[in-house]
Amino acid sequence: MTDVSLRSLTKTFGGPPAVDQVSLDIRDGEFVSLLGPSGCGKTTTLKLVAGFEMADAGSIEFDGEDVSQLPAEKRDIGMVFQNYALFPHLTVAQNLAFGLEMRNTPRAEIARRVSQAMDTVQLVGLGERYPRQLSGGQQQRVALARALVIEPRILLLDEPLANLDARLRDEMRDFIRELQRRVGITTIYVTHDQAEALTMSDRVVVMFAGKVAQAGVPRDIYERPVSRAVAEFVGRVNLLPATVLETSNDTCRFQTFLGQVVVHQAASAAVGQSVDVALRPESISLLAATDSVGVAKVISASYGGGLIDYRVEVAPGQTLHVQAFPATRFAVGDAVRMEIRPESYWLLGKTA
Amino acid sequence: MNPGRRRVSAPMLLLLPALVVLTLFLLVPYLNIFVMSFRMPGQGVPYAEGWTFGNYGKFFSDWFFIGQLVNTLWIGAVTTLACLLIGYPVALQLARGSERLRALRYGIVLTPLLVGIVIRSYGWTIILGNNGIINRTLTGWGLIDGPLPLMYNGLGIIIALTHVLLPFMILPVMSAIQGIDPAVELAARSLGAGRSTVFRRVTLPLSLPGVQSGCILVFILSVSAYVTPALIGGLRVKTVAVSVVDALIDSFQWPFGSALALILSVVGGVCVLAFARMTRMRWAVRR
Fold this sequence. Notes:
heterodimer; A: alpha+beta; six-stranded mixed beta sheet; about 25% helix; B: MetI-like fold; 12 helices; 2 strands
């Protein structure tokens, strides 16, 4: 279907650029999330792709064709809005038919495709309802169907799950992802929810202050973030102050308060320099201390359902955050031993 | 004292001041008018002893009065239409135009309301009269031989009422347009609708609840208007409201004046209800 390329896209609304030199290539059928805090430029980027805003500089290409100057109505996009933006004065069926009418599709064809779309999003029988008569989840599915029924070149979703309650959100997350795979449509998904971005996407683009901080597959974004900001945005992280002891082409050795640590990563720091080594809380396993070697003390524990959050103190002032399954439980004051797989450590870039 | 009881009665208490005012100054006078409309007309006194349906009979047996009622409703309808055609673009501009000078433009729409209706209507007599600005200018330029009939007719009343009542159309329409979620219009564009199609298929239909209230307001106000028709229509064209005052004050016929007033209210009310029913928007009905 459609490859999308953003080339040095820039947009300023007075003040610092909302979108600053964003470049991105999205393959046909790929599901890409733009992830970042509010005001990071992810929604503006989406609006530029949609054609609701025009870029100050840079270009947008669909399959190599420059669409930067086309208004939204000529770009052949499907868009799902955070608040659904259904037409309140039209029934569900009329909402779905709108885009087809704009394309002068014959009546019979419209009827056939609308009913097929209603089937796809499990809304059969609700065609004559008005949007206000539907639940949030149903409205969401109408919005999806309305965007997809026109068989657009690309699908754009702007925080589509933000207004749903937690249970429905998980359900819709799977539904959207499954539908996107089935249709095979190139998709850009804007969210500030890292769990959403990581579970749904083929690729995640983390944005801060209008710039792309990191783009990569979810696993790289989570396990190998390039900076402290990315690491902290996509999950909790322990940062160990470390000193570089030894570097080679693909490994570095550091001294930390957990002892010596080896990271299999090209060195970006010189021997003797101080850096941050990162460690995710769930890559630390806690065991009951059998002797007093390498012992830490639990200083807080909070139950979170599937996981328990611990804070453990290795030495005064040196604490680590640990997430563990509740199978073995420790109480505040317990002495514990930590087990950390060596590949869990990684070195953060200096841009942090 | 009892919290449960206070919770129930609090909303009713909130209504109380309005209820008192409405009862004293609307319901009681209306009842009074209703009773008065069945009294016997008097000679030299407002009304005489005894009861009759004759006041209503007098109205419905005389084409003059029926014609006057039809003319009043016609003036109301045309004024409403004129306010809609002139007011809608203004409302759209106010709601969607640039932020710059919005307060000023808003003020320009509202300032006529600060000037008394008598003064504004009198102003129109200066503009529209046979010796008024328009006729003198056109005669002076040699464009017309005699004065155009702009006053003492329905046209003059409609022009002046349209000016006086315009804000009552603009304000509800503007607030309806402002209430439209901009994302809905963006959604229409994403589906392939150009600017004019977005307006025709989305903005306009979604502003109709405001149009409906604006039309009802302007229609009621123009049908019941007294000062403007009295000043512009003079003795030549009378609306029902003017005749009501004539009957009550000049010819001292309280029972007939009351009957006239009630007939106007009921017929006007029926028109409004019919209009509201015809323009009922199923999608906008609250649960």
